[in-house]
Amino acid sequence: MALNKDRRIGRHAILLLLSDNPTEQLAKLEQSNWKGCLGKVGSMDAQKIVAAIETAAKKNEIVKTDVYRESHALYHAIIEALHGVTRGQVQLGSVLRTVGLSFAVLRGNPYDNEQEGDWIAVSLYGTIGAPVKGSEHETIGLGINHI
C-alpha cells in the first residue's frame, strides 16, 4: 500500500494549478489515466466557490453526477482546500472578505496498488482580502479525499 512518490496527487494538483503550461501538464497526467480540469472563480460567497468547482468537475467528467460518493468526496476536498485559503474559518462575505481564485481538480490513484482506487485533489490559488481593490494578499489551499 505504498504511496508512490511520483504519483502524489496533491503535489500534482498544485503543480498543475501553478504551471506556466497547464495544458501540457494535464496531458502528461492524462497519459497516466488521471483526469483533471482547471478553472477560475471569484466571490464573497463560499457557496458560489463550491458550486463553480463542482460544476467544472462534473462537466469535465472527473466525478460521475449519478454516484453520490464521488460528489461527496469532491465536496470534502473542496471544503478542505477552502480551509487552507481562509486559514481555518470558511467565512468570506459575512466577515467582509472576498477571493479571486484559480483552481485545479485532479483524480487518480496515487498508490502502487491499483486496488487502492481513485483519490481526488482540489488545489486553490489566488487572492483573499477586503472587498477593496489593492487590499488583498496571496493564498493557497489543498484538499485531498478518497473516492
From TrEMBL:
SUPFAM superfamilies: Hut operon positive regulatory protein HutP. Keywords: Activator, Histidine metabolism, RNA-binding, Transcription, Transcription regulation. One of its GO terms (molecular function) is mRNA binding. GO terms for biological process: L-histidine metabolic process; positive regulation of gene expression. It comes from the Bacteria. Coiled coil: none annotated. Antiterminator that binds to cis-acting regulatory sequences on the mRNA in the presence of histidine, thereby suppressing transcription termination and activating the hut operon for histidine utilization. Homohexamer. This is Hut operon positive regulatory protein. It comes from Metabacillus litoralis. The gene is hutP.
